[in-house]
Amino acid sequence: MLWSGWGDPARAAELPAPVRELLTELLGVRPPAAPAATFGEVRLPPAALPPAVLAALAAVTGEEHVRADDDARIRHTRGKSTPDLLLMRAGDASDAPDAVVLPGSHEEVVEVLRLCAEHRVAVVPFGGGTSVVGGLTPARRGYAGVVALDLGRLDRLRSVDPVSMTADLEPGLRAPQAERLLAGHGLTLGHFPQSYEYATLGGFAAARSSGQASAGYGRFDDMVVGMTVATPRGTLEIGRAPKSAAGPDLRQVFLGSEGAFGVITSLRLRVHRAPAVRAYEGWRFETFAAGTAALRRLAQEGAPPTVLRLSDETETMVGLAKPTDLGTPGGDSGCLVVAGFEGAPGDVAHRREHAAALLVEAGGVHLGPEPGEKWAQGRFSAPYLRDSLLAAGATVETLETACFWADLPRLYDAVRLALHGALGSPLVMCHISHVYATGASLYFTVVTAQTGDPLAQWAAAKRAAGEAIVGAGGTISHHHGVGRDHLEAYAAEIGDLGGEILRGIKERLDPAGILNPGVLIPVY
Ligand SMILES: Cc1cc2nc3c(=O)[nH]c(=O)nc-3n(C[C@H](O)[C@H](O)[C@H](O)COP(=O)(O)OP(=O)(O)OC[C@H]3O[C@@H](n4cnc5c(N)ncnc54)[C@H](O)[C@@H]3O)c2cc1C
Questions:
Q1: Dihedral (CA of 467, 470, 473, 475) sign
Q2: Closest Cα to residue 295, out of 341, 338, 349, 350?
Q3: Are 109 and 115 in contact (CB under 8 A)?
Q4: Which strands, in side-by-side order, build the sheet including 99-101?
Q5: Which of 80, 343, 380, 404 is most deeply buried (CB count within 10 A of its CB)?
Q6: Span 67-96, mean pLDDT?
């Protein structure tokens, strides 16, 4: 993973010429005043952990699995939000952990937590490092140091239960690794977020991830039927049946807990048969409102597609819905729906027919397979473009929310208005990214010319958008999580008593407060 950006540096994306023109002419983007820092120019604080603590950690995991070198520290600094990337591009690694520890088993995780609690060392569980909400940037004050607990060595498929259709997998598995292992058994998880190439199963559970095929396979939190969690107070094994009436479901305490309550060391996940057929296609609607009404009907009237998304007029025109066509002159008009169907041939045929009848009735025009296939080809390429846009002098970031269908038009307008108010004349694109019977998620992409202080520029825009979301009845996050960036809005969303419940759980499981301090838990 590129330390200051996204993905494999060999796959860096050039900005197409029409996009460069669009940036200059429409948004007034100019090259940044200073070039991005090189790896050698990154400024790191001295490592703070006492040698005795490092030695004790090494005694648990083996010396080669405790790293305090610059390379390891820089690569475990923060996550991959645009502010995170802007700081790294400026050579600022002031949030670097003092050491990176790579445990090889659940027992080693338990022992590392015990040691860190004893020495008051903060522990940041680290999966793929793709958090976009400050979930990997703990508060350091009051701690003897910070350790990034990289779960990458916990990367096994432990077992498959083909009768129950579940699999036990370790949290450090990246999504493609997990899919490869399951493919050996003819199975799939069906979880394909845009961060698919790098994010891990543990991170998906800890941040309640949602993938591009969630309409069909469900969100990641729907897939978790059991888990093992290491906490400073000991181990929890949760989930002995698919559903239970034995009190509140403790799985829900750890789903979305972002490393603040414990470290997930194993997951029992629902799996599906690998689909025999995949068919993606495009539909066009005249307006976003008409497309929204059609998606709502699809979500409410049964048998929805596996992938279902609707781009608004701006996103469709710019071509972001089909990244391979980005900026193509004379781009599409109207609003593009991508519908993808995966499964057994009969099931796919039935759902396609049902969807087609409904979409035609709702005013949709069938565009054939091409837009859907192009979307599928380019589905993981947008994060690479972000690096090129930042280098060209644009500020580009995404934000997401969800609400009930009845509130959706108001929420859409409110967020767009807030972003325009905060940024002048940005390009604001949006798509409905996930649908449910009762509501949907809106995903916004914003591009604007960088000011001299792009961090402050984005902070103001993000604040305005957050206030608009709260005011219009949306949640501060549908799938990115809380981290530190959404803490204030989350505190308002759950209220004082909600915050107290979280603090109560935290105090019981983590009395020394070493787990990801400053993340998730509202403090009054
Ligand atoms: C370009 C890009 C695209 C993205 N697209 C999507 C998307 O489509 N859908 C989506 O849902 N999200 C998306 N994200 C956000 C991010 O990928 C998800 O939040 C993902 O779930 C994080 O997984 P990770 O393994 O990288 O976790 P990390 O970023 O390493 O960690 C995330 C949080 O979980 C905690 N954590 C990690 N592992 C564990 C564990 N084993 N036990 C306890 N706590 C743990 C961490 O401490 C941190 O607070 C995107 C991010 C980027 C940068």
A1: positive
A2: 338
A3: no
A4: 66-67, 99-101, 145-150, 121-126
A5: 80
A6: 97
* Bridging pattern class, strands 99-101 and 145-150: parallel
pTM of the model: 0.97
Domain that holds residue 414: 277-472
> Does position 330 have pLDDT exceeding 50, yes or no?
no
Residues with CB under 6 A from ligand 1: 6, 79-80, 124-132, 135-136, 151, 171, 193-195, 199-200, 202-204, 206-207, 209-210, 258-259, 263-264, 383, 479-481, 516, 519
Q: Is 383 contained in some domain?
A: yes
Number of domains in the chain: 3
443 a catalytic residue: yes
Crossing angle of helices 82-89 and 454-471, in 10° steps, is 170
Q: Is residue 329 scored above 50 in pLDDT?
A: no
Q: What pLDDT, in 10s, does the model give residues 493-521?
A: 999 999 999 999 999 999 999 999 999 99
pLDDT interval class at 346 (50, 70, 90): very high
Q: Please indicate, yes or no, whether residues 132 and 97 belong to a single structural domain of this protein.
A: yes
Cα(155)–Cα(170) distance, rounded to whole angstroms? Answer: 5
